[in-house]
Amino acid sequence: xxxxxxxxxxxxxxxxxxxxxxxxxxxxxxxxxxxxxxxxxxxxxxxxxxxxxxxxxxxxxxxxxxxxxxxxxxxxxxxxxxxxxxxxxxxxxxxxxxxxxxxxxxxxxxxxxxxxxxxxxxxxxxxxxxxxxxxxxxxxxxxxxxxxxxxxxxxxxxxxxxxxxxxxxxxxxxxxxxxxxxxxxxxxxxxxxxxxxxxxxxxxxxxxxxxxx
Length: 213
Description:
Helix content: 40-55%
Largest sheet: 7 strands, antiparallel
CATH class of the domain at 2-146: Alpha Beta
Strand content: 15-25%
C-alpha cells in the first residue's frame, strides 16, 4: 500500500513540474500536410486521445479514425472565431511524450497559424485542454491506486475470514476430539477393571487344578 502511494505521488509530481507550452508546427494527417499548433504532455497517448475527444465534444460533433485522428466540422469556438471552424487534429506519441496537434480552418482559405488572427486564442484553447487533461489523468491515476488498494483490502479481508473459519472448524474438531478422549478414558478404565477381574478369575480357576503327583 505504501509503495502504491509513493508511485502515485511521483506520478502526480511529474505533472506539476511539466510546463504546458503550445508551439506552432506542421503535421501530416491522412497523407495531407497541415499547419497549426501543438502541445506535448507526459500523459499516455491512449488516455490523452479520450480526454481530447471529450474536450472537443463541448464545441461540436467529433469523429475519430485510426492513427489518433480526430475531426470536427463546423464546430463553434467563439474565443477563436465568431464563425464556424473546420478542425482536424491528431494525437500521437514519441518516446515518453504524447502530442496533440490541431489545424483550424476558418474558411475562405484562411487557417490559424503563428502570426495570424486567432492564434493567441488557439494557444489558450490548447493550453486549457492540456491543463484539464492533467487533472483528468491525476484523477485516473488516483482512482487506479484506490482500486488496487481496494483489491488488496478485499484479498486480505477474504483471507482473514477464511482463517477465522479454519479456526472455528479446528476448534470444533478439537472439542470433538476431547469428547472422544473422555469416552476413551472411561472405556480404558472399564476395560482395565474387566481385565483385572478376568485375570483374577483365571488365577482362581488355575489354582483349583490339582497338582500332579
